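Late entry, evening session. Most of the bench is empty. Finally got around to the prediction I had been postponing all week. Sequence below, unchanged from the version circulated by S.P.
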Amino acid sequence: MSVPRLTAAAGFVLFSSLLCGCAKRGPAVWRLVSAPTGNVLFPPTFAGLPEGEAGPAKCPETPGIRLAKRGRTIRVALAENVLADKPSGWLRTWALDLEARGCLAPGTGDALARRISESIPLDPARAYSLLHEDERITGYVELGPESRLQVTGPLMRDGALGSDPLLGPSTVTGSANGLTVEATASADLIGFETAWYAIRPGQTGYQIVAVRTEQHIQGQIRKSDAPTQNALRFPSGSAYLRLVFKSQTAGQGISEFVVGTSKATDLGPATAEINRTGTCPAGPGIQCLPIPRRVALNSMIVIPVNGREVELSTGASVRDALRAAGIADAQNVLPTLAVLKAHRGRLLPVTFDPTNTAILALRLLGGEQLSWK
């Protein structure tokens, strides 16, 4: 059995035994190790070669990556350093392209990309980057079962229209040194409502389902299962979902768009159409919902922390999750902190040095669990 070798330039270690599928079976745990070049998260040693579901077509060649089909299964072998210089989101984009070309079975590209990221030792931040494009650059964020959508909008008196203004009369006073604007809320505005939606697999695609709601009216909080105003009446059936932020060309009344497609290759053109026209695209298998400006829509992930669900922004870390759970100094819980992370459908422990704060920087993908005593 060959000896593991650290590649400083790539920032991750790669087992040659892992590539040939002959790694010695070890404990079913992740291992977070601090290395001179940064932190490295080792997958469980039984991982072997990542596998996907093969499609009917021949697979295109990718330098440094070998794809071997065996019946309905496709195995992936990676050359050392092949992912070192890939841009954000490359691994997911590459897998979805294989799916579009028929190399992979329909709807399996996302799963293969994540399986590859789970099968090789990587810097946790690098693993996250390979699966997620930078939304500050792209202007959109991908949505999936790990996402939780938070929608906040105004509550109006009975009989008020959704298009009625939120502000009443305003006055402007001032001088050459500055202006003072005084505005009052509309008499029809009585509070606001925040609803959370889950994205769940359906028979033919995803469906967006309300899971809980909070109404804030005159200092009182009312909780319910369903919102009074469902801002996410999105048809079910889309296999791919994306939240597109408002483009420069979108109307002043629109802030965001939720777009869904039946094919991964349709998401790009649909997003381009939104950015070009500021309106929802049309076409076979394309569904779109404009989000009005008076409604705030955020994409989040959900992490159970000591048995209680905590909503976090995408890209959040273990430290962020602990802070959201009310832990001011995360180092206080390190001695008893337990982290579970998914690996091929199973939640497995992450082992780490409790005297080192590296675990606090671990990026969360959604689905992890945290606990401490």
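Two things to note before I forget:
Helices lie at 16-19, 90-100, 109-117, 124-131, 135-138, 267-277, 318-324.
The first strand starts at residue 5 and ends at 7.
Will write this up properly tomorrow.
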